[in-house]
Amino acid sequence: MLEAILVMALGAVVLGAALGYAAVRFRVEGDPLVEKIDAILPQTQCGQCGFPGCKPYAQAIAKGEAEINQCPPGGDEGIHKLADLLGREFKSLSAEHGIEKPKSVAVIDEQSCIGCTLCIQACPVDAIVGAAKQMHTIVAPLCTGCELCLPPCPVDCISMQPLDESVETWKWKYPVFKINPAQQEEA
Amino acid sequence: MTALQRLFKFHGGVKPAYNKEASTGLPIAVAPTPTLLVIPLHQSIGGMPRPLVTAGERVLKGQRIGGADGNVSSAVHASTSGTVIAVEMRLMPHTSGLSALCVVIEPDGRDEWIQRQPFDFRSATPTQTRDYLRDAGVVGLGGAVFPTYLKLNPGKQGKLDTLVLNGAECEPFITCDDVLMRERAETILKGVAIMREMLRAGQVLIGIEDNKPEAIAAMEIAAQAANRAAGDSAIKVVSVPTRYPAGGAKQLIRVLTGIEVPHGKRSTDYGVQCFNVGTAHAIYEAIALGQPLISRIVTVAGNVGLARNYDALIGTPMRDLVALCGPLPDSDRVIMGGPMMGLLMPADSVPVVKATNCVLVGSKQLFPPPPPEMPCIRCGECAKACPAELQPFEMYWFSRAKIFGKAQEYNLFDCIECGCCAYVCPSHIPLVDYYRFAKSEIWARELEKEAADVARERYEFRLLREEREKQEKAAKLAAKTAAGREKAAAALAVVEKPATTPEEDAKKALIAAALERAKAQKELVHPGNVSDLTPEQQAEVAAIEARRAEIREMAKPHLRQDD
Amino acid sequence: MPRSAKWRSRTCGRTIEQNRDPLVNNSPYFLKPASVQSVMLRVLVALLPGIAAYVWFFGAAILLQIAMASIAALAAEALMLALRGKPLMLFLSDGSALVTAWLIALTFPSIAPWWLAVLGTLLAIIVAKHLYGGLGQNPFNPAMVAFALMIVAYPQLMSQWPAAGATDLAGQLHAIFGTRQIDAITMATPLDALRTALHTIDAKASVAGVLGSNPGIGSVGGKGWEWVAAGYLVGGLWLLQQRIITWHMPTAFLAALFAIAGVFSLIDSTQFAGPLFHIFTGGAMLGAFFIVTDPVSGATTPRGKLIFAAGVAVLTWIIRTFGAYPDGIAFAVLLMNIAAPLIDMYTQPPVFGHKDKRGDSP
């Protein structure tokens, strides 16, 4: 009896040591986890999470320095995906980092634009074209809707325009068909 | 007599009630020009054509009103002469019930054509001919509306073994191809001759389901005449067994040639290409008569007193066509297409478009709501019926659970949404709805992912650029300071500090000035450079402003389509 | 609630009201007149020839068992549907509970105490079916779960089979309701007799000897039983003709059973019974057409069906020959049920256009 226990205990110790050693010895450097997290993040580069971009936020999540619920553009779906990837519990979006808004693009009111280039400098994805003292405009397909161009504009000529559903982007809805007991008797 | 041709079988398929006799009794009638034509700009697969006309403009019949945009796109034309009332968002013939940009034309009743000239495709290069067909708005009229010019390319080998002409028309109720073949077989064959020449096709197989003996006979006579004229026997009319969906392009190619074209592959790579008979007719009209695609044959059937085929102008409200046939009082819906694959229309006011092969009027009695959905018992009926040889119940399982990756692994995108699986399902599960849902979710995700990838790339490039600029600046500064050190080594510390301050000051001053200007502008309402202008100039500016505002209005719901 | 409201949720993606009726479904707009109910009812009809033979040779007790099991199944189904908040009439009328009940009644001894089949049915419906999610969700064949559980729990009672020709209804009723001793009308099934003789009583016993010496055992599969099996065969062929089942499962099952039994009886015909005996005895024919063919818990791809059914056959033969229980179908089916998802995964048929890996292009 005692022998058996000893053998099992010894086995456990040996295996544990081997696993522990392997974890240290074969630790994956370069952290592909950051890439995986970054792939889930929406790449708006809006900084609402409190980090200067999606990648830094991904790094912070990977290091455990940030929560997974700080990305408003990613929304609940993004948090779910992060939770799945990291094996963490789902948390609803943290209110201090903002709320989930419908996807929008920035539009410059060309009448009032003074051509100050401040928004061009603020745009993280270079989606604004224009030159000093010339009217600026936003390349809508490239705009991520991060709103970073709004605060620097001295004349408040940039507004966010929500993207409406079009025939091309329309999605077939989930064909839910719930039969509830109230209907059963009629069947 | 129909040629003896070895036929192949496709897997699955169903035999629903065909209900075709009702609409074949009468010849094609020309539908009267409606009081208002609403012509959607986006009527084909691919890019949305840009509007070429503005409100108030007079247009002629066949005038191009939407220009093809991008590599995959097809032009649209005014269906009759008249005045453009508006270029605005109108309800589309689409289940979503959403609107898109349409050209609204008030016909003047004169039906005045543009200058029509036959296109001499023999002396033109193939590219020129294709461009001509693109601008003539010829698209696949079987319902998929893929721009035809893209398919009229023989591909890598420079020739094609088999040109398949699809006259199978397997959907119940629809007879537009049937009557077209009966009445216009000759012109269809002329179109075939053009296609054959462009594609350098060896043989032409015209596949027609054996429940259309009149069409087969008519096409047979025309094909023999064409063969005699060409001095060969390349064109064969083949009667194929009636089984839905024998008229699916892939299924028909399989039946006629034994070749299976996989999803996502071009059939030209397999030496075969498939066109609808209506498309052949449209090609003939465009090339030989110089008439762009402005009308099509539409079957009006279902819950109507007198089902019939109409030659209807593109843009005719479906309601007008339905009214011609006397809809029965219990009609409650209009479906574009047949009962197996047709799309429910949001209203009967939506226009006939190039994809409208049938306007099917429905009622609760004709198309009763399906019995309650039961759980899937994995009986495999759907797999037996699936012409794409899929395992529909597995795809259903994963689509329902929103495990889209798995659904794709079970080849969700090989699904042609023919509806056979849902038709046979003993549990009455709306299987196709689940596939449509899963497909559109996957597409949306792919789009999102693409956008995110672009954003990431651009962001990273920007960081790189900023870093480079910083280094360049530092290098410049270092060079400057090095030069300065030689001149005034002692004053270095004093010089360096103010060297940046005036720069910043200047910037601040600039911004302040700009702010002032902006304020002034806002007060003035319009920009300063329009203050003292001649009246003509002012009028011009006003016109431009108006146009801008209009464009902005138009563009608002379209911001996404800009790409 | 208005009747029409039932369809509201099916109307995918109605975003605007316009002139449209929001209660209309998407294409296809008409369906083949098929239903789960009609499938299940036809399965029940297909069981009738076998039941008729059963009654003819073994008395009407089986009808009583079927009736009791049916009532128990419907009651359990109703209870579980009510507890799960599912529509009662819709699912009660689908017939799936009745199929389970009839299969239980037919696989249990017809003169077993009344509560045996009832308890088995309750277990099948409540545990094996509804606790796993109800119709279409159960990973194991409910009837076979019931059989396996009951034969483990009550091996004696599950081995009391009626003797052929003992159709005395009064005696059978006494047996069922436990009012009188029943030895006179029971006997071991051929399989049981064979196993007992070969394994325990007499090391020198041979198949021919056992089968020949027992007056209740016929020449092929046991007197009477071969006719019941023939009845099931007739019903099964009708199911095939009705396209309720495909040929794959019955053929693979019977062929594999025939093959493995044939090979071993060729090797040693004194120790191993012949292939015809195996096919026509016990639950083999019932299993071939009615049990392994259960689509919910079995494999679904054509090749998968062949593998699944052949696996059941081989396991059945092994359990019959070497196991401790009289018939092995239940355990064999349950074992293969576990493997069904894996079999399906590895036997996915090629999709249109993706068949020829060697050269897609001509």
Architecture blueprint of SSEs:
The complex is a heterotrimer of chains A (187), B (563) and C (362).
Chain A: H1 2-25, H2 32-40, H3 54-63, H4 75-86, E1 104-108, H5 118-122, E2 128-129, E3 137-138, E4 158-162, H6 181-184
Antiparallel strand pairs in A: 1-4, 2-3
Helix pairs in contact in A: 2-3
Chain B: E1 29-30, E2 37-40, E3 50-51, E4 58-59, E5 64-67, E6 76-77, E7 82-91, E8 99-107, H1 126-135, H2 148-151, E9 160-166, H3 176-199, E10 201-209, H4 213-230, E11 235-240, H5 249-257, E12 272-276, H6 277-288, E13 295-302, E14 308-313, H7 318-325, E15 331-336, E16 343-344, E17 358-363, H8 381-385, H9 392-400, H10 404-409, H11 420-424, H12 431-487, H13 492-524, H14 535-555
Parallel strand pairs in B: 1-14, 9-10, 9-12, 10-11, 13-17
Antiparallel strand pairs in B: 2-8, 3-5, 4-7, 5-6, 7-8, 13-14, 15-16, 15-17
Helix pairs in contact in B: 3-4, 3-6, 9-12
Chain C: H1 36-58, H2 61-84, H3 88-92, H4 96-107, H5 114-129, H6 142-153, E1 161-162, H7 169-177, E2 186-187, H8 190-201, H9 207-213, H10 225-241, H11 248-267, H12 275-280, H13 284-291, H14 302-322, H15 329-346
